[in-house]
User: Fold this.
Amino acid sequence: MDDTDLWAAFPAVDAPDTVPADAPWEDPVPLKQARQLPDFPVHVLPGWLRDFTAAVAEETQTPVDLAGCVALAVLATAAGGRSVVHVRGRWREPTNLFTVCALPPGNRKSAVFAAMTDPLYEAEKQLKTQVMPAIIEATLTAKLAEDAADKATRKAAAASGESRDQMIAEAVGMAQTAESLTIPPEPQLLADDATAETITSLMADQGGRIALMSAEGEIFDIIAGRYSGAPNMGPFLKGHAGDRLRVNRQTRKEYIDHPALTMGLSVQPQVLDDIGKIKGAKGRGLLGRFLYSLPESLLGHRTSDPAPVPDDVAATYDRNVIALTLALADWTDPAVLQLTPDADTAVRAFQDRLEPKLAARGGSLGHISDWASKLPGAAVRIAGLLHLAQHLDSGHNQPVTADTMHAAVTLADYFAGHALAVFDRMGANEAADRARTVVDLLRANHWPEVSKRDLMVKLSRAEFPTAAELDAPLALLEDHGYLRALPALRTAGRGRPPSPRYVVHPYLTDPEA
Assistant:
C-alpha cells in the first residue's frame, strides 16, 4: 500500500454544510469502522537488514511486523546517543526509538527477539573485552592511591611538632587524588525490565544511553509504579526526548545532559489496553512516544516446514550490526547527520500532508494529535537509522538522501495506521465513545426530534457531568449524518435560551431498522 492509499484509508470527516431538516437522508457513516491496517514495508529497509528480517519472520512463522520493529530498535540501540539528525535551524532529532509490537501468546516473540538481538550481546562482549585492561589498571591505581592516602593519614595523625601541618596537607592532597580517580564501568548496551532509578543510573554510567529490549511488557508495570507505588515516567520521557536529566538525592547525584533511551518491546494486546490506563501516561506524553504495531497473528495459518534463515544472510546481519555498534561506541560527541536539500523537501512535504490530519475536528488523527504531532520527528529518527545502516563505514561523512527520507516516511505512515487501531483499543477517541452512548439512547427512545436538554436528563452524569461534555459528541453525530441541527429559536425575553434541537435520522427512530 503506498502513501496515498494509506491516508485515503483514514479519511477526515468534514463538517457538512447546513442541511434542511426535511431533506432526504443518506445512510449515516459508522462511528467506528474496522481499521485497514497496512502491511509492514520491509522492502524499504537496507538490503542486508531487509533480507534477515524477512527470513526470521519466515523461519519463526511470525508477522514480519515483529521482526521489523525489533530491527529498528536494534539500529537505535547501536546508534542511539551516538548520532543525531540535523533537520534545519535548531531542529535536531536523536536516533533512539520506542517501539512496541502487540501479538497474542504463542507467536514466538522470544525467538524473534533472540535472533534479532544476539549480535548486540556479542558487540557488548567485545566492548567489554576492549575496555577490560583499562578497568583493571584504573582499579589497581585507585587501590594504590587509596592505600597511600590511608597511610599518609595515619602518619599525620601520629605526628607532632612542626612537621604535623605539612603531613596533614600531604595526606589531604593524597586523599583528594584518590577520590578523583574513577574506574570505567563495564560497557552495557542492553537492560531488561529495570526500574526507573536503575535506568537512570545505567544511562549515567553508559555515557547517556541504554536500551530496554524485551519480549514481555513488564516495563509498563514498572512505569505504572509496581515498586514505587506511583507512576515514575521522568527518565522514560526525558530518555526519549534527550532532555537533560538530573537526579539530586542524598544517596546519589547523577547528571545526564543528553540521555538516549531505546525501548524495543513486544507485548500481548491486553497490555495495550492497560497502558492506556496508567495515570498521566497520555497527559504527560508517554503514550505519544511509542511507535505501535498491531499485526494480525499467523496462528492457524503457519507451515510446519518453513525455510530456515540462510547462513550467509544471518552472518551478514550479525557482522553489520556488530560493526555499526562498535564503530559508534567511542563517539563521545554524537555524529551529526545532515540532510540533502531534497531530503529536507521530503520532510516538509510530509509535515504539510500530516498537518490537516491533526485538526481536532475533522482530522483523522485529531484525537491522537499528541502522538501524531511527533510523527515527523520519528520519521527523521528512522531516516537517520536507515542511513547509518546503508553506509556502515561512512554514514557520518555523507548526508541523508531524499530516497532514505521517503523510505522513513513510508515507515511512519505504517506506524500511523497501526497507531489508530491501538488508540482505538485504549479508548483515546472519547468523543466517538460518547457519541455511541448517545446513539444507543436515541435508538432506545425512537425520538424523531430531541433537544440537548432532553439528552442530558437521560444520560449518566458520570459520563456527561456537564452539558458541555455533549458538544463534541453531538458535533460528531452531525458530521456522520445521525443528527441535523434545527435552526435556533429566538426568544423575546431575557430568559435562558432554548436548548438546541436536532432531527434524528430515521435509522434510529424506526424500531425495525
